[in-house]
Amino acid sequence: MNILLDLFLTFAKIGLFTFGGGYAMISVIEDNCVEKKKWITHDDMMNITVIAESTPGPVAINCATFVGYKQKGVIGAIVATLGVVLPSFVIIFLIAKVLDNFLENKWIAAAFRGIKLAVGVLILDVALRMIKQLGKKPLPIILMTVSALAMMTINVLALQFSSIIIMLMCGAVGLIAYLIYGRKKDKVMDADCSYDITHGVESSVSATDAGEAGERK
Amino acid sequence: MIYLELLWGFLRVGLFSFGGAYAAIPLIRDVVLEYGWMEEEMVTYMIAVSESTPGPLMVNMATYVGAEKGGVLGALIATAAVALPAFIIIIAVTALMAKVMGNKYVQATLDGIKASVIGIILAVGAWLIINNLGLAPVISTSSAGAPQIGILSEAIDIRAIIVTAILAALYIGLNRFLKKKKKKTISPILLIVMAAAMGVVVYGVI
Questions:
Q1: In terms of CB atoms within 10 Å, which of A194, B19, B120, B165 comes out highest?
Q2: Residue A183 has pLDDT above 70, yes or no
Q3: Rounded distance, CA A67 to CA A62, Å?
Q4: CA A25 to centroid of chain Cα atoms
Q5: A24-28, A140-144, B114-118, B167-171: least confident range
């Protein structure tokens, strides 16, 4: 199949079956673009999740643009983005203009209550799989745990505190830890450390690890 | 003019909504109320519709407001406006990515953000499930004036607990097993279809 058509149809399918916003969408995109089509790798997916979270705009648009661009440049990005937007555009347009009191229909409301339960499971599953990819390094695990606890506190107490601030603080901690411990190790490693973004997780082995290596010397 | 207002209003939403759709809801609310496009009550209904229909939340809300205020053209303009900033930024970031990602300082920062994003997704998922099941703690003030945290027993949704347990067993449990056996797993789309069917049975029929 023509790659542009394939991009459009795949993202239209993604757009049609993702309920509940960006996080639930990640699992659908991963299933289609990583597992089935192999357009991007798991690490790409992790990188685009991070980028999508730290840039403005809908996560779905961010992901569609990224995958489309990787496959076929700007035209691919346009096609994938149009694909992901089209189904919801048509559905919402109909609801806004034609179907009044759409949510008051008993059967539709019941189906959506069920879907909402699935969305919770999908998001939890994405998180669990990503935790597995984190590995056993202490620093990422600490940052992950602290972020989760902070976010839970924000939710329970209904605080007005943006999650982006937590992310930026963790980014700063990562950078500082690297500045303190990480660079010693690089001098040894530089020779065979030609960069490769698909190995982001491994190549920038966490700072604590580098610190341990230093002590052993 | 309404079209220009829609364009400018939703460009702002697209440009300042960091951290996904749930950050965008208050932003869209502000824009919609600022221009007087909808009444407060209508905004709440629109958010409910956008959350329960497929597709990105922000796009849904933009299409809804655009359609209400400016028909097909209004919907097109609002939707394009909310998507455009993300589209341009991602193309720029992707084009620069190989270069920027190679930088060790950027990489160290991104690793920190990455760990944090995972923690936040975990918390969002857990919180959504807790809410769905009616187990969310409620803070109330007791007669003595001391704040208390507790769960309202009448809010607990037994049906939701059963359906969620089944869905989780299928998707998180069974899928891991099927994957090990190299058999076909349950896709997220199939899970959503099954959940909708279970919802109809559990909340509609029973």
A1: B120
A2: no
A3: 9
A4: 9
A5: A24-28
- Chain A partners within 8 Å of B22 (Cβ): 21
Contact B82 A167 (CB under 8 A): no
Hey, of B25, B52, B118, which one would you mutate to test binding to chain A, going by the most A CBs within 10 A of its CB?
B118
Whether the Cβ atoms of residue B188 and residue A13 lie closer than 8 Å to each other: no
Q: What is the per-residue DSSP string for B130-141?
A: HHHTT---EEEE
Q: At what angle do helices A163-177 and A42-54 cross, to 10 degrees?
A: 120
- CA A68 vs. chain centroid, Å, equals 16
Length of chain A: 217
In degrees, rounded to 5, the angle at the alpha carbon of residue B123 between the alpha carbons of residues A164 and B49 is 80
Distance CA B122, CA B173 (A): 17
The rounded radius of gyration (Å) of the Cα atoms in chain A is 21
pTM for this structure? 0.77
Residues contacting A138, CB < 8 A, separation 6+: A206, A208
In chain A, which residues have their Cβ closer than 8 Å to the Cβ of B57? 21-22, 58
Query: Which residue in this structure is represented by tokens 């992707």?
Result: B94
Residue B198's contacts (CB-CB under 8 Å, 6 or more residues apart) are A114, A117, B163, B166, B167
